[in-house]
Amino acid sequence: MNQHPHDYALSLGPCPNHEYDLVELQEGSLDAGRAGAVQHHITQCSRCRAYALALGELDAALVDALPRPALSPDFDACLRERIAELAQVPNRTAALAAAEREYASMRRNLGRGLGWRTVLNAAALGSVVGGVVVGFESVALGLLQSFGLVDSGMSSTLPFAIALGAVFAVCGAVFARRPVGGSILLAD
Amino acid sequence: MDAAIEGHLAAGRHARAFDLIVPEFRNRVFRLAFSILKDRAAAEDAAQETLVRVWKALSGFDGRAALGTWIYAITRNTCLMELRKRRPTVSFDDPDSLEAQHAAASIATGPAGDPERDNLLRLLEMLPGNQQQAVRLFYLEDRSYDAVAEALGMPLGTVKNLLFRARKRLMELARPEEVQAA
After folding, report:
1. Percent of chain B at pLDDT exceeding 70
2. Higher-confidence residue: A18 or A80?
């Protein structure tokens, strides 16, 4: 920047109430009415005149001095190459999401066959059937023993067989009353 | 152009949106990176890295911020990471920092043999970092306050004030010593 002829006036600085106006005037962003007033002030005030001149010189000097680099011509090609490389590598997030989807699907499929509801219903059915079969067998055995058709030595098993049949029947009834998937032993 | 990009984004056509983003933003991203890094090659690398990050994150762009605001934020973060790589701790407001010295060295790679130009750039390096950046970006963006405000993510008034104080300080620094003594 050239040494200004009005260095002394410049050293004093502009009038404080015109400082912003001088910048906007130099940029051309001051409205017309205000610009006229400031320009008139400049003709009267050596300090503001020197400041306005210095602002213009500084602006021109910065325009000349500051580098204005440009992108390399192959910028787009390099970028495309990088993007293409990245696109070939499986996106980790996408891969993780796909794995999670597959896992959820597997769980759903597994759940269809072995859900709590199915298991409990099967257990209830099995218990009822088991209870009926064992109970029937016990009653039949007792009747056969009463009629002397079988060895009376087996009569000692009758109370046990009846009790076992009753337990199965009760368990079957309890499970059968919980058909919505809950368990009397485990929370959902 | 922004409307076309946003249309593609809204429709989930991220690749097509990115094809429009690159020509629209590459130079602006590069200029912002240069104003921060003050080195052409580093700025170009940062611009590449920024656009790759944009490509990766585009599917997650939710439109809460303007696209430009979002891209400039990525650019600034990318550049700050680059500065941290250069030095563990960086002070943007310390003109005597190693960063400032590095910048001065990189500027010296420009056209040589103009003492006035070199002197002005030396004075510029003496400004606080945010004022330096505002000045550089202001002239890179053809003296557009709006462009600087958008790129730096600052209110327009803040940018005007930064530039006002930067000019004032530059003129004080440029004043001949004998006049300052008078």
Report:
1. 81
2. A80
pLDDT above 90 for A93: no
Cβ neighbours of A68 in B, within 8 Å = 139-140
Could you state, in order of their start, the residue ranges of all structural domains in chain B?
1-86, 97-182
Smallest Cα distance from B100 to chain A, Å: 16
CATH architecture entry for B1-86 = Orthogonal Bundle (1.10)
B173 touches chain A (CB under 8 A): no
Collapse the DSSP code of A69 into the 3-class scheme (helix H, G, I; strand E, B; otherwise coil) and give the result: coil
What would the two tokens of residue B108 be?
A: 């010296």
Q: Please name the residue of chain B whose CA is at the shortest distance from the CA of residue A84.
A: B52
A124, amino acid identity = A
A133/A31: higher pLDDT: A31
Name residues whose C-beta falls within 8 Å of residue A172's C-beta, 6 or more positions apart in sequence: A124, A125, A126, A127, A128, A129, A130, A131
CB contact under 8 A, B167 and A55: yes
CATH code for the domain defined by B97-182: 1.10.10.10
Note the pLDDT tens digit of each residue in B14-37.
Answer: 888 999 999 999 999 999 999 999
Q: Is B116 on the interface with A (CB under 8 A)?
A: yes
A11 interfaces chain B, CB cutoff of 8 Å = yes
User: Shortest Cα distance from A46 to chain B (angstroms)?
Assistant: 16
Chain A neighbors of B140, CB-CB under 8 A: 66, 68
Query: If you average pLDDT over residues B62-83, what whole number do you get?
Result: 91
Q: Residue B13: left if φ>0, alpha if ψ -120 to 50, beta else—which one?
A: beta
Q: How close does chain B come to A83, measured CA to CA in Å?
A: 7
* Nearest chain A residue (CA) to B121: A65
What is the pLDDT at residue B160? 92
Region for A100 from its dihedrals, namely left if φ exceeds 0, alpha if ψ lies in -120 to 50, beta otherwise: alpha
- The ipTM, to two decimals, is 0.78
